Amino acid sequence: MKPIRSLALAAALLTCTSLGSQRLWAQDTGDADGARLVAAMLGASPLEDDLRELTTYIGGRATGTAANLASVDWALARFREAGVSAGKEAFSMPELWLERSASTRIFGPEGSGIAFEARAAAMPFSSGAPAPGVTAPLADGGKGTEEDFDRLGDTAGGAFVLIETEPLLDIEGLFKEYNEAFDIERRAVAANAAGIVYMGSRAEGLLYRHNSSLRGAEARPMLVLDRGAAHRALSLLRAGTPLSLTAVLDLELGPAYESYNVIGEIEGSGEPEEIVVVGAHLDSWDLGDGALDNGANVTLLIDLARQMKRLGIRPRRTVRFALWNGEEQGLLGSYGYVRSHAAELDRHVAAMSFDIGCGAINGFFTGGRAEVASALDEILDPVRGLGPFQIIDAPVVGTDNYDFMMEGVANLVGNHEPATYGLNYHAQSDRFEECDLRTLRTNAAIVAAATYGFATTDVSWARQSRQEVEALIESTDLERQMRVFSVWDAWLDGSRGRRAE
Ligand SMILES: [Zn+2]
To answer: CA 485, CA 380: separation in Å to the nearest integer?
Structure first.
């Protein structure tokens, strides 16, 4: 998940449904199965071993790495071991981008004696700077505001602009960081900066990899710098000492290649041609082990498929367990899926994504579709005791619901208590120990209820037309979110999203 949801949006669009408590399942033949499934998710299972294996044996698994391919085989093996029919589905990644190493050196004028190394990570899709690297003056970019760039004037041109950040404390800070970076990067491009260097926002010099919207002609070296070293550089600059920075970014770059989603399936017992997708992304970035983002939700879905198979539960509709790849690099696995399954999209009843860590699930985003929000409210009834749940009927960009939304398919994103998500987001510290296993089991029960519910209940909605998706864009802040995500142009030119009839 790349959380660019604006705070304003969250505040403006909170639409909590509370439609009483009719128990759908009580009138439904699936009632007993739904209850059995929810109970099973809370019991013993290999869930913990799975998460440990995926995050500690395989570890970080950026799309394009050998570890990522190993995770594909691993996930297939888990499904098949459980007797769940599963396969891998190829899709195209437009380019290979991986960091082999990154280092920087900051130094003062000759004779000043000032020179120090600073730990750094390349931001996603940064340009490379092979040894001996790129050297440029380091400019104090303040907070990267319009005024800061005005103050720098011509001196930003050809310089590395150092941006001061607030310490990241929570998930709201992360939203803010994402939103601001979009504008900072555009200002730096307009000023023709040689590169952008962000002061790391995490404590203890923790490095992370996120937050870059510049591609193609706008690409340049983009770095996150150890927070302490960045502070030191800013102090020197503000005391009037000119500094330069040398960045050596050794990247592994390459042309388009194939990656794979892993899709497990439980065929529906009544209307097998109707499909409910429940997904989480298998890939991660590579600095940490990818437990919060998103191994926890991957192993949760594997466990759900396993329990449905073990209990012999086959809801009315087909359930597809989608373990996406390429998410961190542009939501590309789910994009590949909607393209290769285009002929079936009219029969996709709902697509759910879980990608906001392993804190307790506290609600859902329902994409600006009141009828879906209303159905969900009833569907969650059997797990009401694990709530309360807040249904936010707003569209969100940033994870694998995106292409379903743009194709007009009803889509949901699970929301979670922040827990340890913000601090460890895309960082070296995203590891197994950050997930509470008991919470993961209660989350599994909630996801089970939602999946079973959408696969069972009568639905009142159909796939939206392009016109209806356009209306959704116009009535919400979707356009801004899409621009921040660099997917707006692809929507406009028709290469991504539902086409006009
Ligand atoms: Zn994620």
So the answer is: 31
